[in-house]
From TrEMBL:
Signal peptide: none annotated. Pfam families: FtsX. It is a multi-pass membrane protein. Residues 250-371, 707-823 form the ABC3 transporter permease C-terminal domain. GO terms for cellular component: plasma membrane. The keyword Cell membrane applies. Keywords: Cell membrane, Membrane, Transmembrane, Transmembrane helix. This is ABC3 transporter permease C-terminal domain-containing protein. It is found in: Cell membrane.
Amino acid sequence: MKRYTELSGKYLSRRLRRTFYTLLGVALAVAFITAIMITFKSIESSEIRALEDSVGAYHGKVEKATDSEILDMSAHVLTEDVGIQKIAGFIDFPEEKASLLIEEADGLTLRLRGKRVTNGRLPEKLGEIAIDTFAAQLLGISSKTGQRVSLNINGNERIFEVVGIISTAIQESSLSRAFVSVSAQEFSTIASKSEVVKNVYFTVDAENKTLRIAAQKVASDLELKDRVRYNGSLIYHLETLSPVNWPAVVLGLLVAVASMVSIYNTVHISVLERIREFGLLRAAGATAAQIRKVVLRESILVSVFGIPIGLAAGVLLSFAVALYAGFRLTGLDGFAVSITPLSLVVGAVLGFLSVVFSSLIPAFRAGKISPVEAMRQYGVESTGCKIRKFAAGESAYGEKISLKLAKRNMIRNLRTTAISVVSMTIAATLFIAFSYFAGNFDTERLARGVVKSDFSIRVTGMYDGGPNGKTIEDLQSIEGVETVAAAKFLTGRLLSEYEDPEMESKTYVTVPDPQAGMRVTMVDQSGKYMALLAYNRAGIELMKSKVISGLIDLARMTSEPLVVIDVENSNRHNIKAGDRVLLRTYYLTKSMVQLPVNSEFIVGAVVQELPSVAFTVEGGILLACSEEIIDRLRPEGNDVHLTMMDYIDHYSYVDIYLRRGANPETIEPVVEETAKRYRNSTFLSYSQYRKETENAIRTLSTLVYGLIAIVGFIGICGITNTINTTIILRRREFGILRAVGMTGKQLKAMLTYEGLIFGLISAILSVVLGVILSYAVYSLLKTEIGHLNWSIPWVGIVLAVVGTLAAGVLTTLASSRKVTSLSITESIRAIE
């Protein structure tokens, strides 16, 4: 039986222009879907890599592991990677409150700890070392290879050559630990004179949701539960990572829908063009199924060529996005494109499904065409009513008749009208919604949400040195500086309601367990996690101008137990001025037992905001007080080994406010140089941060509008193709209208009205849907993006309305130019 499959290729080659439009739509859709999937996956992967560089890539760590424990861990079925760090000794730097550890570690162990060789190599023989950047800082040398350095290891002075530079893991640096790596041969020489400590870093082979359970299972099976420390930050991030990247999926589906509408237009019109051809095939014996296959095969053939082109273009586009906007979108220096098979498969599958689904309805319609229907005059039928009106002399009211005919034509061709309107509405609706989102980025509020002052220095590590009183005086003496608000940092818990008489005597964490040889820790879950900022007098004075309720008096703040709370924390935790609260801090005895220290405070005032931008854990609370009050929290007695108040030997937050008219560009280098004196310090400039924010928003806006432009382009291609083919099919109608008296000018007016009605309907729908979608975006994001306010996106609405009206008129006129230029005789001829 004849299959008629060769007709698909013949028609595609015969209608090259329409084939090109369809191929372009498929390729663009696949390219953009692929680029979206790759870009979002790259952002996700880059964020994970940045976190691993900060806290390490390990899932669990066992300190002081034995050789048998290492072997058992390596053989465990759930264990994936095992890295062994061997430490032979250390060198103390008391002035820096830091230690330099001598270790042997391979590349895998470094990677699991969030470190890597940035220059040179790892040591391979005697006399060679590799140092991390923190070690270079402690040794007072530059981070370069080829240098020689003298180290006193276990009483032996040795000269080493630096052959490698290793990055510093932020977590290790925050614990004031620097590392020097030596070769295995060197290590064996050193280890013979000291006790070797072996730390094991391991990862488990499990799904993200079960990483913690799998790591705990390894520790439990090997009876190491009490000695394993888990990488909580990384595990939590991976556990909360959605298995489906919904933003990418939603954007991909939007592109797929726009593509489906465009392809449906093209295939539907191509079926209308060939009604007579399909009727003749049916008369010659072709079945409905064979006709459907002809139409579907055409779409599949286009997909075979369009999808590979789209995939290649999508990969190139993702690299362009990474090059242009990678850092600005993520703030990550190490942003890199991550191409996964899944991204390519999703792009190809969505593109293919777009073609197949958009071709199904036209294919079934083609299969239903009967030979009798095909023999009739086809195309857009003209009505005797119209012709009689022209014959009766109503052409004197040309504009009125043109408008009336335009409306009747659109009603009669309702399906084609609906498809074209949907194409334009989708693009315009998305444009309005994204213009609202992009236009409501308040860079002032965004920047002030990170830096309230002109310059800020932050040193929040417990073991890091930081600015002291002398530093604050030096900063205050800089010409142009008005005030310097400095705050020390203390952590603990806050109780707003307490009636437990035994609370003072409770021990919340641990007593030694002789059998386990370790402390068993109990977590105190009472109250709220608290971050307390203890300000100098300048900081207290700044808060006086921000008071909403209560009173801030410098004399009382520095002599009485008063705290200040900002309005956000006040509303969130329902704590008002005058409330009595209990602050609980902790200290460790020499026997390493942690005991609470409780101090009663009164909320003196609620302020609009604090002078510094500081954060606490989710659900925690942020408070401020005077630094003179902090010393009252330090426990008395000789049994105090360590307190959480060890933070207070330096200021953790220093905010510099300039005088009006001062030049920040001349002051910034001095403040930045001051910040560089302190390890793990962060320097922030308001003006610089605001510029970076504006650049990031500009980049995001460009990408967003680029998305809308591509979706709109796909839609316009479909609209142009639909209207172009519809007008060609109506050539006979146009010829008859001109034969009974319609002028070329009136014909163009009628088509212009049709395009205007297309645009007007699309504009009305897109405005309504765009405002609804904008408000939905606001409702979903207002709690996460504090600067986002609701406002009707008038600029986006105006541009969308103008764009849809222009698109409707211009596409119609462009498509009608060839038809209106034909003579009456040519127009009335049969269309094949």
